[in-house]
């Protein structure tokens, strides 16, 4: 009688493939992102208040950045309108004034010129002041001919050097330029950029604190759950993952609210800003965020939310010890 060899049965160890681990990692990330979003939706009022606090912290530096961006565009327009006025000697006639203009336009650093004769200058002066009758009674025209010059380089140092060189031209009485106001404007713009950077850093820290405090409360509410999963071998990365997604959702929601507030604020202020600029004979409008600016705002807000959650969770995980 033959004896059959019994089959050996028992537990078998299976080694997970790299593809399986990758799919499992993606499934867990998807599950945690959906779970964290559903937890936020279960408490809409609290989540909305947290996002609104983040949005308020982002609106001020973002609005200041938009204002400075508009001022930069205005500064570029002012550079294009930078001119020098060359006043010719009183006894220079029309023909000689034309020859002087040709000499000036041929000089290095001069982009273009426009000759204003003494008669044209008097006509513009009368129209600007509205004193046609009074000025018409003058025995002769007291205004000299002038040449308006547009420099190639609008930088203050280059314009000043060009003005010094033009004063040596024969027949030129005076070269007039006023760069003090332009220098003040650029100093104010530089001050605004530094203030904006400082505010961005401070309010960014504020976003970290808001998200960190919210996530800290969430960690404390789920402390027992964290202790249990830690006892059965869960890593800190596994425990940290849902809270990181919560912080990212908070940041993204705050960024969307900030985008909406900036858009509404820009539309609300557009008319008064345009009227104020028109009263000074200029055109100025607050620029919009655009696609790149909106992506930057949402990306920064999401990153700040994620970072605030990471700091809060890492700090508290180090203090949680399974019992």
Write up what this structure looks like.
This protein has 323 residues and is of the alpha+beta class. The mean pLDDT is 77. It has ten helices and four strands, in the order ααβαβααβαβαααα. Strands 2-3-1-4 form a four-stranded antiparallel β-sheet.
Write the layout of secondary structure elements.
Elements: H1 18-42, H2 44-80, E1 84-88, H3 94-105, E2 110-116, H4 118-129, H5 132-136, E3 146-151, H6 156-166, E4 172-176, H7 180-221, H8 223-231, H9 236-279, H10 290-317
Helix pairs in contact: 1-9, 2-7, 2-9, 7-9, 7-10, 9-10
Descriptive tags:
323 residues; 4 strands; alpha+beta
Arithmetic mean pLDDT: 77
Number of helical elements: 10
**Amino-to-carboxy terminus distance:** 60 Å
- Estimated radius of gyration: 35 Å
Order of strands in the sheet with most strands: 2-3-1-4
Q: Runs with pLDDT <50, length 5+?
A: none
Helix content bin: 55-70%
**Silhouette:** elongated
Spell the H/E element sequence: HHEHEHHEHEHHHH
Helix/strand class: alpha+beta
**Proportion of strand residues:** 5-15%
User: Please, what is the oligomeric state?
Assistant: single chain
**Care to count the β-strands?**
4
Give a short account of the largest sheet: 4 strands, antiparallel
Concise summary:
The chain has 323 residues and is an alpha+beta fold. The protein has ten helices and four strands.
């Amino acid at each position: 009688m033959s004896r059959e060899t019994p089959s050996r049965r028992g537990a078998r160890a299976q080694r997970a493939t790299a593809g399986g681990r990758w799919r499992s990692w993606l499934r867990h990330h998807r599950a945690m992102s959906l779970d964290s979003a559903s937890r936020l939706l279960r408490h809409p009022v609290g989540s909305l208040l947290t996002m609104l606090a983040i949005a308020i912290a982002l609106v001020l530096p973002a609005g200041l950045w938009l204002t400075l961006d508009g001022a930069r565009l205005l500064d570029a327009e002012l550079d294009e309108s930078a001119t020098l006025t060359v006043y010719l000697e009183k006894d220079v006639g029309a023909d000689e004034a034309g020859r002087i203009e040709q000499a000036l336009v041929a000089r290095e650093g001069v982009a273009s010129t426009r000759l204003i004769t003494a008669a044209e200058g008097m006509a513009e002066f009368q129209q600007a002041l509205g004193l046609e009758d009074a000025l018409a009674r003058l025995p002769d025209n007291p205004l000299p001919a002038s040449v308006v010059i547009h420099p190639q380089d609008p930088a203050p140092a280059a314009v000043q050097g060009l003005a010094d060189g033009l004063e040596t031209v024969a027949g030129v009485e005076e070269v007039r330029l006023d760069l003090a106001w332009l220098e003040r404007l650029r100093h104010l713009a530089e001050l605004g950029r530094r203030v904006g950077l400082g505010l961005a850093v401070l309010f960014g820290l504020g976003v970290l604190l808001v998200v960190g405090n919210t996530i800290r409360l969430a960690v404390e509410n789920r402390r027992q759950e964290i202790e249990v999963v830690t006892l059965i071998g869960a890593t800190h990365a596994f425990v940290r993952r849902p809270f990181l997604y919560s912080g990212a959702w908070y940041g993204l929601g705050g960024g969307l609210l900030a985008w909406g507030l900036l858009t509404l604020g820009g539309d609300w202020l557009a008319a008064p800003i345009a009227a104020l600029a028109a009263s000074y004979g200029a055109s100025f409008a607050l620029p919009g965020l655009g696609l790149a600016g909106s992506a930057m705002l949402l990306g920064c807000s999401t990153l700040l939310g994620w970072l605030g959650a990471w700091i809060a969770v890492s700090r508290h995980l180090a203090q949680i010890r399974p019992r």
